Amino acid sequence: MAQIKKLDIVRFAPKNGEGFYDTLKKKVDAYFTENKLDPHGNTAMKLKTLAMVSMYLVPYFVMLFTGTGSLWLFYSLWFLMGIGMVGIGCSIMHDSNHGSYSDNKTLNKYLGKIIALVGGYEVTWKIQHNILHHTYTNIEGLDDDINAGVFLRFSPHSKRYAIHKYQHLYAWFLYGLLTLQWATIKDFRQVYDYHKKDLLKKEKITLGKAMLQLVVYKVLYYTLLFVIPIAVMGIAWQHVLIGFLIMHFTAGLLLSCIFQLAHVIEECEFPAPTDDMKMQNSWAVHQILNTANFSPNSRMVNWFVGGLNRQIEHHLFPHICHVHYKNIAVLVKQTAKEYGLQYQEQKTFVHALVNHYKMLKKLGNS
Questions:
Q1: What is the DSSP secondary-structure string of 300-324?
Q2: DSSP 3-state assignment of 345?
Q3: Taking the CB of residue 106, how many other CB atoms lie within 10 A of it?
Q4: 132, 305, 308 from 342: Cα distances, Å
Q5: If you ran DSSP here, which 8-state letter would residue 66 be given?
Q6: What letter does residue 137 receive in the DSSP assignment?
Q7: Of 326, 334, 353, nearest to 262 (Cα)?
Q8: CA-derived radius of gyration, the chain
Q9: Of 85, 176, 139, 137, which is closest to residue 292 (Cα–Cα)?
Q10: Distance between CA atoms of 44 and 52, rounded to whole angstroms?
Q11: Fewer CB within 10 Å: C terminus or N terminus of the chain?
Q12: Strands (E), the chain
């Protein structure tokens, strides 16, 4: 495998005008034109936005203004807020920061900042997700989504340590810490790291401005989640801390599972570039061979995870709102078959979860 340095750019095979993606894009464009549809969000998306935000904020205000009466109810409301975090992250924030929520760029910009309400920072998220993950999916050294540090091994090209032999057992606990990392140290570390790699420039922001924004966001976040509940409810700080951890563990575990099931499974290829930093396939073919869907027929899963159970469609058309994925999936699957490409799909969430478990075990032992 070629050694990838911080500023190296992997080059995918060029499109030829008649390949898989060119053909598919014409079909998808024709679908929206013929049906007179806007590829952005619709009324259903607006209603979902209201539902997801309510799922997060209603339990919060219930705690503040009506009281709970018992610790179990108090902790349960934090759990519901964790579910709401997932809904906001998978639907509102995700589509907005991809520019697919609305054709109004200003609306996308400010709705994307809703990530601050759940402890994140849109600048680092967009660099990690939109730039690195979506461009270099499953490429070791470039896709930050498979760069999980020392304790987890998500790629057959990353270094294996003895502890990885047990990662299929302990990974689930670490998954639960995902959003807690965002809310504490990860955003600060990424801002500095992306500055060194000249990636902050892509978001048109300086290191100083990014750090200032981040500090302000975190102060407001912890004021909302800690200072106000303790001051208004008069409840002991340790109970607020326990509730806060319940919320984040719930959100972290669910979000990790949703995203890892799409890429870290046995069917995905994890290809490496050649010594001159070239990939064998075009970008679109690379995406379809390193991405998988799950639970395509579950209306509940489709609604709750913002269409991210259809990651193939999302990776090929991130500028299209997820409410349209179900319909364009027919075109993607058909075109993939025409070009002899494997359209990878797990029937249910449980099937995908078991597959991911097996992949963790495989990567930990070989």
A1: HHHHHTTTTT-HHHHHH-TTS-GGG
A2: strand
A3: 8
A4: 24, 24, 19
A5: T
A6: T
A7: 353
A8: 21
A9: 137
A10: 12
A11: C
A12: 293-294, 345-346
State the pLDDT confidence band at 2, using cuts at 50, 70 and 90: very low
Instruction: Give the CA-trace dihedral at 218, 221, 225, 228, to 10 degrees.
Output: 100
Helix (H, G, I), strand (E, B) or coil at 278: strand
What letter represents residue 204's amino acid?
K
Sign of CA dihedral 120, 121, 126, 127: negative
Tally the residues of the chain: 366
The residue among 152, 155, 124 whose CA lies nearest residue 138 is 155
Are 114 and 49 contacting, i.e. CB atoms less than 8 angstroms apart? Answer: no
The pLDDT of 140-144, averaged and rounded, is 91
Q: Which pLDDT tens digit goes with each residue over 265-317? A: 999 999 988 888 899 899 999 999 999 999 998 999 999 998 899 999 999 99
Give the residues across from 278 on adjacent strands.
Answer: 11
Structural element, H or E, at residue 293? strand 293-294
Q: How many helices (H) and strands (E) does the chain have?
A: 18, 2
State the pTM of this model: 0.92
Among 300, 328, 350, 288, residue whose Cα is nearest residue 39: 328
The owner of tokens 């010594």 is 275
